[in-house]
Amino acid sequence: MPANLTHAYLEAEQKFKSASRNPEKVAALEEMLRTIPKHKGTEKMQADIKRRLSRQRKETQKKKPKASQKPFHYVEKEGAGQVVLCGPPNSGKSQLLKNLTRAEPKVAPYPFTTQKPLPGMLPYQDIRIQLVDTPPLAPEILEPWQLVMIQQADAGLLLFDVNDPNLLVQTDFVLAAFRDRQIVFDGSQGPPLFVLGNKIDDPQGKENFSAWQELYQENFRAEPFSALSEEDLGKIAKLLFDALEIVRVYTKAPGDKSKADPTPYVLKRGSTIFDVAVTVHRELAQNFKFARVWGKAKLDGQMVERSYLVEDGDLVEIHW
Ligand SMILES: Nc1nc2c(ncn2[C@@H]2O[C@H](COP(=O)(O)OP(=O)(O)OP(=O)(O)O)[C@@H](O)[C@H]2O)c(=O)[nH]1
Ligand SMILES: [Mg+2]
Questions:
Q1: Which residue's C-alpha comes closest to atom 6 of ligand 1?
Q2: 37 φ/ψ angles, rounded to the nearest 5 degrees
Q3: I need a surface site. Which of 43, 129, 170, 252 has the fewest CB within 10 A?
Q4: What whole-number distance in Å separates Cα of residue 192 and Cα of residue 178?
Q5: Based on the domain organization, do 145 and 263 belong to the same domain?
């Protein structure tokens, strides 16, 4: 490998590795091509990046949903998974996005503040999860795309203000809207949805939460929550990481004595070591011989075949 790769190039390469979706991969490859030092020593690498870029571009085009399936507002997925923040007006969706990410949504003590979706990235250890703030679920403004966005997300956080005088009407409205579109809470069809009874920090919060949860216990299990509490905020990333059912796999080149690449590849739980090879590089997959794995389930450096199911935290070395 040529010695003089720039910091910008290495950063772009890391972005490529942690990208789970085509548009991100394309963007990262374009950046790699832009930032790679242009000289004889990198000619092969440049050609390789161009090949990968053209393949990823083709795949992006193939995967584009038909225009008619696209909701009116649409947020391109980024990072390890997309989580939609939804719920009635003034329930604290934007406050949650603001407190968990660097996004700067408008937060206001009155309803109907948010009018279009706004994404932000929530860090979890060495990966990032995309949160998307959305306009309220309310009869006055509900549009089909809001529900489509929930259905197409990887998980959802449904917030209610447990102290809102209209809480029961709001809850019934959301349940009816979900029923109409066959949105369920347990992830058995569509993404798993977590219900947060927000603003529990209010003096009446706990009492209101209990009464509300008792009334709707047949429909969902809610968590008492405060978007203003560091402790509660701190639980969200792990909750979502588990819900997304993903694994992080670290790679190193065979025989490389140095440390593994610190940026993991993110794959769905149930992926095989062969899926990892495909994600890293098509040639690697085509010529796959075996792999060695260092991880929780395997002895250090144990040889595995292509059907081995990778686990979160596995370090792999693919031989080809
Ligand atoms: N006490 C308390 N106030 C909160 C909490 N979460 C949000 N708020 C406040 O509730 C108000 C509404 O918050 P937003 O985040 O704007 O609500 P929203 O759900 O985005 O509202 P819309 O955009 O209208 O749907 C703001 O004044 C927030 O500061 C909480 O956990 N506790
Ligand atoms: Mg809002």
A1: 92
A2: -60, 135
A3: 43
A4: 13
A5: no
Q: Which residue of 86, 94, 104, 134 sits with most ligand 1 atoms within 8 Å of its CB, as the best mutation to test the pocket?
A: 94
Q: Which two three-digit tokens encode residue 94?
A: 């934007």
The number of the ligand nearest the C-alpha atom of 91 reads 1
CB-based contact 226:290 (threshold 8 Å): no
- Domain coverage including residue 254: 245-320
In the block, residue with structure tokens 């794959």: 267
Using a pLDDT cut of 90, give the percent of the chain over it: 77
**Residues 180 and 278 both lie in one domain:** no
Specify the DSSP class assigned to residue 272: B
Tell me if the pTM is above 0.90: no
Q: Closest ligand to 142 CA?
A: 1
pLDDT at 70: 45
Domain boundary among 9, 38, 64: 64
Q: Does any ligand 1 atom lie closer than 6 A to the CB of residue 109?
A: yes
At residue 233, what is the residue type?
L
Is the pLDDT confidence value at 200 over 60?
yes
Strands (E) across the chain are located at 82-86, 118-124, 127-133, 155-161, 193-198, 222-224, 246-251, 265-268, 290-294, 302-304, 315-319
Query: What integer pLDDT is reported at residue 261 of this predicted model?
Result: 79
